[in-house]
Every structure is written in structure tokens, then in C-alpha cells.
């Protein structure tokens, strides 16, 4: 990696942005539900999968933001958090939406929690794509799709 970073709150409970660059080129943005264990130097399985999709789309970097900035390994833990959104989260989402590469929604069915999916869809103004949809129409998570799954309009 040429560059690897993350913006994590001082308390460590929130991750607002994760960034990886491996070459020059556009930045592929993934908007998922909430951050897990990946940080400025360590990737988790989801981030490794997102990097694979970004490379497939001929991008040189990956930026990950989330509907909720609270770090949790399960949606149940996220939903128990006192303030799951995170104070600065919308600022980082808005910045990510200005990137030139693909903007990929990937938050799954739990994105409806607190209406965050609708809020971010409104911020994006119809520019989002996804790696397929669930039966209920939610954007699929990158761990649960084939590596050759094409991007489609959300």
C-alpha cells in the first residue's frame, strides 16, 4: 500500500473513515452499515473484499464510510449503542460522496435502523450503485456476493 489511514475518534469507539491507496487513479467509495475491527493499518475480511472490488473497477484507492460510525462486530451491538451515528459521521460521508470513482452502497438490511439509509440516499442524490440487492431491495454487503457481481444502480 502507498497509503493506509483511518480517522478514529479519540475514545476509539467510532471510525469515521478508512482509506487505502495502492496506485494513482480514482477512489472507489463503499458506504456500509458500521465499522468493525479494521483501522489505519489492519484490514479485516470486509476491507480486503472491498479492495478486490475496487481493483476490479480499475480504481487506485478505496475509501470506506458508514451509515453509523460506532465500531461493532454485530448489528445487535450497534443497535444497543447510546449514540451509534457518531458526531462527525455526516461530514465524512459528504466528503466521500464527492469522489470521482464508483460510489457503492453496501449496508444490507440493517441500514433502515433510525432511517439512516434514507438519509444517506438523500445526501447522495441518486448517484449510488450497489453489488446487487436483497429480496427486500437493500444493497448487498460485499462479503455476501460473488467476486464477479457487476455494479448496478441502487
Automatic annotation (TrEMBL):
Source domain of life: Bacteria
Protein name: DUF1643 domain-containing protein
Organism of this sequence: Hartmannibacter diazotrophicus
